[in-house]
Inverse folding.
């Protein structure tokens, strides 16, 4: 029986949701697990420069991993080869791959999965398995969106998010440091989580977002940083909307010193240190790239403040 009356809950939002037509699941790694099942994938070639969640889901689902190197341009090396039954896992790192480039990899290798965790605003290519991760971009605790033309017939359980929202609500009114433990616990929560449908709460929140405004803010913030930092950046990058990858020789030390200024710059994909050696390019990239925040919480004054702090540290 439907409840009528009582206290008012969270409003239901009706704005258009980006990637509305995709398969809505609980997390990005389970988009990959979904494809393992629907495509019957047993072997996957992945970059060394990657998040450990991909390692975990391969191990969990019994998929054999092999690796490939990338260059400073975040693109796979040119002599990449696939075994007959192997799939290429192509990551649009920092949003640096255009759809034209992705399409060339698809034409060459055919069996390609595109990870757009760093490229939420990129359109999926027709007929190409592609997925997007929501919580890297917006204030939600979970959620991912998958495009594939081989859907499963399984009925997946509907996820529930209400009990994992405290770190988001807490940070809205207090500081990030107070709730970092809960944020980290939420990330670890998905290690063993099965494939589920996206929760009603997450889907509702995604319908309350002004995507065009957010995209424009991120682009402007990227441009602000690039204008000031491009001459110091060891990377040759194009405009994008995820984070600003700023690579300097002593990036690891700069990261530590920025933390003292309450500017928190993560080390993305620390698993790279476990699967590569100190002489490998990816090791140095993971160590010295500072993924500077450009998201919708900030404006040009914040970007100016951050660049001033960084430039001062570089000059010392």
């Amino acid at each position: 029986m439907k409840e009528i009356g009582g206290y008012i809950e969270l409003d239901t939002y009706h704005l258009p949701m980006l990637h509305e037509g995709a398969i809505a699941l609980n997390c990005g790694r389970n988009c990959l697990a979904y494809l393992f099942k629907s495509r019957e994938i047993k072997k996957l070639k992945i970059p060394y420069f990657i998040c450990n969640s991909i390692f975990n889901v391969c191990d969990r689902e019994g998929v054999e991993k092999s690796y490939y190197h990338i260059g400073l341009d975040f693109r796979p090396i040119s002599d990449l080869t696939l075994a007959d039954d192997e799939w290429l896992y192509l990551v649009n790192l920092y949003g640096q791959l255009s759809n034209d480039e992705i399409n060339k990899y698809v034409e060459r290798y055919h069996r390609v999965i595109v990870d757009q965790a760093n490229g939420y605003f990129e359109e999926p290519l027709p007929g190409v398995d592609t997925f997007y991760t929501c919580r890297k971009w917006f204030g939600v605790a979970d959620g991912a969106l998958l495009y594939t033309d081989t859907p499963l017939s399984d009925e997946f359980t509907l996820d529930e998010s209400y009990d994992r929202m405290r770190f988001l609500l807490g940070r809205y009114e207090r500081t990030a440091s107070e709730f970092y433990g809960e944020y980290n616990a939420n990330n670890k929560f998905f290690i063993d989580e099965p494939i589920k449908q996206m929760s009603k709460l997450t889907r509702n929140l995604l319908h309350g977002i002004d995507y065009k405004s957010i995209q424009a803010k991120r682009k402007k913030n990227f441009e602000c940083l690039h204008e000031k930092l491009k001459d110091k950046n060891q990377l040759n990058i194009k405009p994008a909307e995820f984070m600003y990858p700023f690579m300097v020789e002593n990036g690891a030390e700069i990261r530590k010193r920025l933390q003292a200024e309450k500017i928190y710059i993560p080390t993305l994909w620390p698993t790279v240190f476990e699967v590569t050696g100190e002489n490998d390019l990816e090791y140095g990239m993971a160590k010295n790239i500072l993924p500077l925040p450009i998201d919708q919480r900030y404006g040009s004054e914040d970007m100016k403040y951050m660049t001033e702090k960084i430039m001062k540290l570089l000059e010392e």
User: Anything to note?
Assistant: The longest strand covers residues 86-91. The first helix runs from residue 28 to 39. The chain has eleven helices and nine strands. The chain has a mean pLDDT of 96.
